[in-house]
Amino acid sequence: MKVLVLNCGSSSIKYKLFDMDQKEVIAQGGIEKIGLEGSFLKFTLPSGEKVVLEKDIPEHTVGVEFILDTLVSPEYGAIKSLDEINAVGHRMVHGGEKFSKSVLLTQEVLDAFEACNDLAPLHNPANLKGVNAISATLPDVPQIGVFDTAFHQTMPEYAYLYAVPFELYKKYGIRRYGFHGTSHRYVSQRVCEFLGVKPEGLKIITCHIGNGASIAAVKDGKCVDTSMGLTPLEGLMMGTRCGDIDAGAVTFIMDKEGLDTAGVSDLLNKKSGVAGLRNGASDMRDLEAAVAAGDKEAIMVDKMYNYRIKKYIGAYAAAMGGVDVIVFTGGVGENQFTCRAAVCDGLEFLGVKMDFEKNKVKGQELIVSTPDSRVKVVVIPTDEELMIASDTIAILEN
Question: Is 21 annotated as catalytic?
Answer without folding.
Answer: no
